[in-house]
DNA sequence: CAGCATCCTATCCGATACTG
DNA sequence: CAGTATCGGATAGGATGCTG
């Protein structure tokens, strides 16, 4: 686009090979896996340490077996989560973050804790918004 | 805000009133609005400055009129985006981040730029994963 | 315990048409 | 320009039943 005269301020997203704002960029898919309804909570839960399937399921309150399985597959495929299966009976499988996954989870948790801390503001904004329309 | 005796390290998520990991916490809804497919891109686009509806639509490549409208309503209701309408003809409406929205967008952009920068690792992980199963 | 397969519903979302 | 309304296909996601 503009590779000769871009200032340092513009460079940030001017000539990156991957730009999430363009329709066909694969980074959108990753972002959706990582920030999706279950993806963000799964990464957040695993940040504290490795967990087995059912422990994870209890930690991510409300996730179904199917969705957790699907989410873990996507995150494993993207290289954010590592699956460690032991061939014992009963079976034991541990999930843990990869180094890359840790970095993503860190940023995600920063966001999560931030919004948790500001929920009262959000709730108030919602009430104001709703009150203004139901007249 | 900090009226308990929790240490600074624990305070963050030890006794917060809002916990995104529990099923019925309203912070989940906010997180989904902010990190959803179009929410994150909309907030990211508005971080650079206020934009009009159609400019925003062009910036968030691929978003439909309907989804952008819906996304903006949700973000406005949550108090992350401010809608400024001028009663002129043709109509002119500007969207901009609220102070709270800026803080969310900042963290979101941190994540976005991070994943953009690591996409090659992710793509490689995906190839490895796919190659391992199609045997 | 750690899952996969199937069915079914709710919602997401794009396309199209229309309004002030 | 800045939206709203409606339709229909695609997908997310819950419930249930089964396997190693």
UniProtKB/TrEMBL annotation, chains A, B:
This is Helix-turn-helix domain-containing protein. It holds the Pfam family HxlR. InterPro entries: HTH_HxlR (IPR002577), WH-like_DNA-bd_sf (IPR036388), WH_DNA-bd_sf (IPR036390). Residues 25-123 form the HTH hxlR-type domain. Gene3D superfamilies: Winged helix-like DNA-binding domain superfamily/Winged helix DNA-binding domain (1.10.10.10). The keyword Transcription regulation applies. Keywords: DNA-binding, Transcription, Transcription regulation.
């Amino acid at each position: 686009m503009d590779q000769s005269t871009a200032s340092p301020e513009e460079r940030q997203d001017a000539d990156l090979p991957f730009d999430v704002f363009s329709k066909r960029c694969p980074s959108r898919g990753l972002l959706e896996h990582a920030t999706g309804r279950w993806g963000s909570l799964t990464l957040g839960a695993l940040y504290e340490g490795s967990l087995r399937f059912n422990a994870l399921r209890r930690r991510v309150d409300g996730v179904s077996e199917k969705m957790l399985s699907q989410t873990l597959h996507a995150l494993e495929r993207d290289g954010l989560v590592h699956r460690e299966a032991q061939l014992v009976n009963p079976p034991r499988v541990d999930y843990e973050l990869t180094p890359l996954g840790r970095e993503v989870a860190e940023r995600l948790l920063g966001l999560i804790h931030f919004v948790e801390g500001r929920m009262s503001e959000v709730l108030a904004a919602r009430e104001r918004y709703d009150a203004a329309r139901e007249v």
